[in-house]
Each structure stands twice: as C-alpha cells, then as structure tokens.
Design goal:
The protein is mainly α. The chain is flat and about 45 Å long. The longest helix has 22 residues. It has one domain. The protein has three helices and no strands.
C-alpha cells in the first residue's frame, strides 16, 4: 500500500492505464483496490481525468 501521495498517484495511473487496455479483465482486483481506501478512488479519478486530457491533446490538430 503506498504511503506517499506520489506513490498513490503512480499506482492510480497504473490502474487507469491498465483499465484502458481492451484486454483488461482484472475488475475484481481494481474494485478491491478502490474499496480499500477512499483516497484510492480520488486518485484513480484524477488519473483517468489526466489520461483523458492527455489523449485529447494528442488527438488535437497540430499547429502549423
């Protein structure tokens, strides 16, 4: 279990990346991790939001 906020962010980012994989099937483990601590859900949601923003930025048209 991460004890430092940056460690929690890293674990949350890892989950967000894994869930984005079409082959992801470890929903039970994700659910257990999210339910283990209220801070996990907040970190996961922030990671998903960051991933969405980054994906949108990569899809944006490039400036000439």
């Amino acid at each position: 279990m991460p004890t430092h906020p940056s460690d929690l962010k890293e674990v949350a980012r890892d989950w967000a990346i894994r869930v984005g994989d079409p082959a992801f099937d470890d929903w039970d483990a994700l659910t257990r991790w999210l339910e283990a601590d209220p801070a996990h859900l907040a970190a996961y949601e922030a990671a998903v939001h960051s991933a969405d923003w980054a994906a949108d930025a990569l899809r944006a048209p490039k400036a000439p």
